[in-house]
Design a protein that fits this description.
Helices cover 9% and strands 44% of the residues. By secondary structure, the protein is mainly β. A hairpin with a 2-residue loop joins strand 6 and strand 7.
């Protein structure tokens, strides 16, 4: 009796890794409509953002507001980089309310999607050196999905700050 060779067959399964990444695109506009400064900054999707994504995709109950869409942006003056445990903006600007995008634009891509939130902050109520931005699912409370810090943008009383957030899922 001899030893019989046996072949091990490894079948490569399709690789469909799922991931989320976001990016803030920020423009400072003067009172005449001229672009004064532009920043582009990647973000960190935080734990509460992952919890909400899990709730929406898998029906789990990991977040407090599983049915609320992320359509709100807040800006601040905090300088500490984002960490997974962030649940709020580090340093809100007094008198500068979160802004809601009434129509979040989504686009299906081959193998993923892109969603864009865009809001405008007025320098009349938000004049400050802005160094952070975050995405939320509610105008006054709610959960944070993502946060970013960046080099300061000085927003004067006559300026506007357009903050666009793009999230891509693959």
């Amino acid at each position: 009796m001899g030893i019989q060779d046996s072949a091990v067959v490894i079948q490569n399964e399709p690789n469909n890794e799922v991931g989320f990444q976001g990016n803030f695109y920020i423009q400072l506009i003067d009172e005449y409509g001229n672009v004064k400064e532009v920043r582009q900054s990647p973000n960190l999707v935080v734990d509460t953002g992952f919890a909400a994504i899990s709730d929406l995709i898998h029906g789990t109950s990991l977040s407090a507001d599983p049915d609320e869409q992320f359509d709100t942006i807040e800006i601040g003056t905090g300088s500490t980089g984002p960490v997974l445990g962030n649940t709020d903006i580090e340093t809100p600007i007094g008198g500068c309310a979160r802004q809601v995008d009434g129509v979040v634009v989504g686009q299906l891509l081959s193998g993923g999607y892109n969603a864009t939130i865009e809001v405008t902050f007025s320098g009349a109520t938000c004049a400050a050196t802005v160094t952070e931005a975050a995405v939320f699912n509610h105008i006054t409370a709610g959960e944070m999905a993502a946060r970013s810090t960046f080099a300061g943008i000085v927003v004067g009383a006559g300026d506007s700050l357009i903050v666009e957030y793009n999230m891509t899922g693959t």
